[in-house]
Design a protein that fits this description.
Helix content is 20%, strand content 38%. With 150 residues, the chain is an alpha/beta fold. It is built from two helices and eight strands; from the N terminus they run βββαβββαββ. The chain has helices spanning 39-51, 99-115, and strands at residues 2-15, 18-23, 26-32, 55-56, 62-64, 72-77, 121-123, 130-145. A hairpin with a 5-residue loop joins strand 4 and strand 5 (62-64).
Length: 150
Amino acid sequence: MKAIIQRVSECTVTVDGKITGEIGNGFLILLGVEKDDDEKQADKLCDKIYGLRVFTDENDKMNLSLSDIDGSVLVVSNFTLCANCRKGRRPSFDAAARPEKAEPLYEYFCRRFQEKGIQRVEKGIFGADMKVKLLNDGPVTLIIDSRELA
């Protein structure tokens, strides 16, 4: 699994002009599910994101985690994160999991945040054409690949 995590002050995702997910302080997570991914990959990625200390404390140091600030997450499926752009000008999406595999893992990943006690876990609509609007705080943007985690 691959994720782009953006620390946000606010974020919304809309589908066909209707807001399907909305949060205040927390993380926007763009999530790409690859063919070989499984629940173990989702667990590792969720654990890493949950524990990231990238929110500022009273001394303006990045020292607080999502749970420390009572933050929220907005998870948006994004198969284009699985693109291979090495050859030519058109990306290959062969590494991306098929929807019938990717969607259950996406839903599982979202549930894991709820199980960890995150009160507000919002989502886009899997496979839809979504519009994401955010106020990136910092900006703080991180890229994490579950295969690179210990």
